[in-house]
Amino acid sequence: MKCSDPERLPMFRSHFTGKNIIEFALISILVGLFTIMTGCSTRRWMVREMTDVMQAGATAQLQDDDLELVEAALPANIKLLETLLASSPGNRSLLILLSRQYASYAFGFLEFDLERAELTGPAAVRDADIQYLRNRISRYYRKGMDYALQALELRYPDSRSQLASLSSASEFNKSVKPKDVAGLFWYGFNLSGYVNLNRDSIRAVSRAHLVEKTMLRVLELDPTYFYDSAHLILLAYYASRSPMMGGNLDAALVHYHALDQAREHKFLLNNLLYARYYLYQKQDRKAFISVLTEIENKADKITAYRLFNAIASKRAKLYLDAVDQLIEPDTQ
Length: 332
Prior knowledge:
17 helices, disordered N terminus
């Protein structure tokens, strides 16, 4: 008989420092041994307590702008969550956290490595690096999608098959209740990253409209969920594709302004994606440089969203260094 855990609200990851990583590995081993040696009720209590600890660290990590330490901690964090999940496979909070972890690691860190290889990597090694990174990031986004789907399946047993079909996805999204917005959001976030990464795949591109449907439903259920980030995904979605593929620069601009106002002009990832996709599509070199330069200048001065803004600042510098590759010098 499987243990089941009381439901918990999904939050961001726990906070780790470089010193904690070794301790963390030891904890993971102890957790594994403990789950083998103890009974169902004890394991359930242990998983609940460990989940609470990881959720409680959310605010601290979001305020950490040391990207190297956060990046180093995330893989260990994922492994611990998967160890806990093995003892409690029906734990919705762990499934949501895992979906979120994979999405954050892939988008926040590995996609930077990919774009750096694409824009500045030496020609002799660039192609091999790019293919390796694409495969790795795609795999993580697929894992993130799968964990989110598992979370949704706990309440909607047919969610996987419903979301596999464009014809049934709209009706399924309408059936999702506000208490399940987390599973829907992280499914859509991971799917968005996967589709954007695999535009040369007919199978991946055929699922792009699911991103739009999912995030529009998230906005209906809870527009403020995870820092109003459904607007962020829709901004990238509408601005990164041609009109024939569902692109719409006017719609992208609406979502950019909605998030900018909701977060009082302090959530700089919004500005980053506005520059990278919207201004790139417009080939507005002057505005592109201006927005990215402003991100670099403001990131250290804003106390809110420190992790997100540090990611935005690092990527803004990459785009500025590669501006001639992204926008023709004689444009405008």
